[in-house]
Amino acid sequence: MRRVTGTWAADFLHWGNQPASTDEDAQIATKGVTKFCKPSPDTIEWPVTDIVHDWRAGAENHGLALQSPDEAAGDGLWTFGSYDSENHPIPQLVVTMDVASAPAVRGVNIGPSYREGDSVWLKGSPSAMYALINDPAGGRMTAEFQIEHDPAVPGQGTGLIWTATSSQTSANGKPLVRIPAGIVQDGWKIRWRARAHNVTAGTVSDWSAWGHGTVATDVPEITAHEVFPSYQYEGRTMSIGLTPDLRATVTHPFADSMWVEFQMEYDPEQPRQGTGLIWESVDEDVPSGEQAVVTIPEGLVDGGLWVQWRVRASGGPFQSEWSDWQKLILDF
């Protein structure tokens, strides 16, 4: 087994254009395999540790060449399985190495949360933290988590609020811990971090960079329900046509855009016309302070139908309750 020193292409390789190879660190296998002795076929191994070290030291890796130590000698025909063999195992290069343990944290998340640019808001009392960790040496790992008061706001408190260590996971796992309810308060600014422990190797990573966020309980506000076009008749809203817009204004103190849901159902005051949900729709990515708008599809309803409709908005995990039902009679 020799180290190839020249380039080659499998699709164009033949006996006359074989790449150069070197006998430096070449290995000779002397195991005899013949169809007259069992087991046959059998495997042959060549220790190529020195060749792999050559590659690691900078020698170009053009692969390995398998040839007789003396190609002028008539020592018969040897047949080996190749990478596209159908009846025999394909060749394998097995490399065993010692890898130093180096646990690392690739990311830390806390939630539920909402991010807008560089700002993070945590919904009420955050419920969980998890980290993305790894170690090239493998082994069983845990993650250690900390939540602290933000030192930029000492009036809210200082130092550690809570800490916990996850259960064990794999070297490329995502350990998670549950955060007890009530440990932080609305309006607090907090920070969090994590570090990885390789329990098998007894090694520990550096702490991750601090993450920063604000605890908030704000939910979207829904105002100015409107049907367009419509008019008022004897205290009720009457649509002009059967495909009016349903509109509502949504606002939130820090969520720049929202997901707004609409539902329309039969008016329970007129049960003979029907009961339950008729239609629902969503207006996505509605800027805070703007109108969310959906249009009742053509052919969905008949004139004279009494309905009621409502709205709910979400900015990340911050979700409003459903608004009050709005009464509507669709155009005759």
Features:
23 strands; Immunoglobulin-like; mainly beta; 1 helix; 3 domains; seven-stranded mixed β-sheet
List the helices and strands and how they pair.
Layout: E1 2-4, E2 21-22, H1 49-56, E3 64-65, E4 104-111, E5 113-116, E6 119-123, E7 128-134, E8 141-149, E9 160-165, E10 176-178, E11 189-198, E12 203-204, E13 211-216, E14 221-228, E15 230-233, E16 236-239, E17 245-251, E18 257-266, E19 277-287, E20 290-295, E21 306-315, E22 318-319, E23 326-329
Parallel strand pairs: 6-13
Antiparallel strand pairs: 1-2, 1-3, 4-7, 5-6, 7-10, 8-9, 8-11, 11-12, 11-13, 14-17, 15-16, 17-20, 18-19, 18-21, 21-22, 21-23
GO cellular component, one term: extracellular region
CATH topology group of the largest domain? Immunoglobulin-like
The overall average pLDDT, rounded, is 91
Q: What's the CATH first level of the largest domain?
A: Mainly Beta
Which percent range describes the beta-strand content?
35-45%
| Helical content (DSSP H or I, runs of 4+) | under 10%
Protein model, in words:
It is a single chain. The protein is mainly β and 332 residues long. The chain folds into three domains: 97 residues, no CATH class; 113 residues, Immunoglobulin-like, CATH 2.60.40; 109 residues, Immunoglobulin-like. It has one helix and 23 strands. Strands 5, 6, 8, 9, 11, 12 and 13 form a seven-stranded mixed beta sheet that branches. Strands 18, 19, 21, 22 and 23 form a five-stranded antiparallel beta sheet that branches. Strands 2-1-3 form a three-stranded antiparallel beta sheet, with no helix packed on it. The protein is elongated, with a radius of gyration of 35 Å. The chain starts with a strand and ends with a strand. The mean pLDDT is 91.
